[in-house]
Specification:
This protein has 13 helices and 20 strands. By secondary structure, the protein is of the alpha/beta class. The longest helix is centred in the middle third of the chain and has 14 residues, at 262-275. The protein is elongated, with a radius of gyration of 25 Å.
Length: 412
């Protein structure tokens, strides 16, 4: 019988589908985050097998990780030779060993092949079997700054071990954000189809202020654009994200340019294109098409019964890309509301031709399950020959992956 906790597998995406990951938990207070990390990996499709040191089991009970993963927690090595079963030179070996949190003790022992806990034995066996090993350090800053610990981290790195974080503040080398840990694992398994490429992405809404308090905007959350930026980075690209006001986590490693208005977004994109050479531009933002002819200072009194304003058109960012950078493969986005499929395709294709785009991504935001703010999308990718590729409803990250795969196939 399948453990009930495994019901969440692939509930967010299939990006880690079929991947078997050993989660080694050491005796840091950050061990309390291990269940959340395990379950987030599972939500993206992974099967997670927990291994704990004796010190870790004093912080969280092994039953908690068994509940979180649906797999028995390994706290000692038995006649089953669990370290060989999971990490040996066998056909059933796992795809990755994630040591999270990783203490100075475990890091230093692993650097010298000392195997006196289940965790260190799993690590040594994995390294000997060429299984990828990822450490997520968590300790006091004084330990992290210890030159011997630094030397041991470098020793492991020189032998192919990957490190994520830590975040150093408040006198501690704190565990990386859960979002960054999950993103790093997803990135590890992502095909590097954009290696050595530069990408610029726009995301989110813009705000056009009527006065210093009130503004006109769109309901864009920025999720689609951020997922494209994340997937491009995971695919090996150097990524610049130009985004309006959003409340979405952006992983470290992506250059962020924050803007407010459409003209600010336009100028940021223009400046980036003039000062750098970009291979791809993904224009996933939903800027406001119009701005106020006149902005009022202060706050318009709420006592007024009627206010008449004049709107003027904002510049179309997508129309300017090829004029500034003709060799940049440009992917536009066209959101419509409640149109037929034929009309959606026709309107998007018209925009593609008018703005000299290479591809355009069209979607109908009238559907609540794929509307602004949703974690899912369903889109149609149209090229200059009006060929249409349908990407069925999927997580926005999976949709981003398919869009990028189509973009990479475009010949400039």
């Amino acid at each position: 019988m399948l453990h009930p906790s495994k019901d969440i597998i692939s509930s967010k995406s299939n990006l880690l589908k079929g991947k078997r990951i050993v989660l080694c938990v050491c005796g840091s207070v950050s061990a309390i985050k291990a269940p959340d990390i395990a379950r987030e990996l599972m939500r993206h499709g992974a099967d997670v097998y927990p291994v704990m040191s004796k010190a870790a089991s004093k912080i969280i009970h092994p039953y908690l990780l068994e509940w979180a993963t649906g797999n028995q927690t390994i706290t000692e090595l038995t006649g089953r030779i669990e370290h060989v079963e999971f990490c040996g030179l066998t056909e059933s070996k796992v795809d990755l060993v994630l040591v999270c949190p990783a203490t100075a003790n475990t890091i230093s022992k692993s650097a010298y092949g000392i195997d006196d806990t289940p965790v260190t034995t799993f690590i040594s066996t994995a390294i000997g079997s060429n299984i990828p090993v990822v450490f997520v350090p968590a300790m006091h800053e004084s330990l992290y700054r210890n030159p011997f610990v630094t030397e041991n981290i470098n020793r492991l790195k020189n032998n192919g071990v990957i490190f994520i974080g830590p975040k150093v503040y408040e006198g501690k080398a704190k565990i990386a954000d859960i979002e960054d840990i999950i993103e790093a694992v997803i990135s590890f398994f992502t095909p590097k189809i954009l290696t050595n490429k530069r990408v610029i992405v726009t995301a989110g809404p813009t705000r056009e202020y009527l006065d210093d308090v009130k503004y006109l905007s769109t309901p864009s959350s920025g999720k689609m654009g951020v997922e494209i930026a994340k997937e491009c980075a995971a695919s090996g690209a150097s990524v610049t994200l130009v985004c309006g006001p959003i409340n979405v986590h952006v992983p470290t490693g992506i250059t962020i340019i924050s803007v407010s208005s459409c003209i600010e977004m336009f100028k940021a994109v223009e400046s980036s294109l003039r000062n750098n050479s970009y291979d791809y531009a993904f224009l996933a933002a939903a800027p406001v098409d119009f701005t106020f002819y006149k902005k009022h200072s202060g706050k318009i009194p709420s006592e007024l019964e009627e206010v008449t304003v004049k709107l003027v058109q904002n510049p179309k960012i997508s129309a300017e890309i090829k004029k500034i950078s003709p060799k940049t493969i440009t992917i536009g986005f066209k959101a419509e509301y409640g149109t037929s499929l034929d009309e959606l395709i026709n309107r998007a294709y018209k925009r593609l031709i008018e703005n000299n785009l290479d591809l355009i991504v069209a979607n109908d935001v009238s559907r609540s399950d794929i509307a602004f703010g949703s974690d899912y999308n369903e889109v149609y990718v149209i090229d200059r020959s009006k060929n249409v590729i349908h990407i069925p409803k999927s997580s926005k990250r999976e949709v981003a992956r398919r869009i990028i795969e189509v973009a990479v196939s475009v010949k400039c």
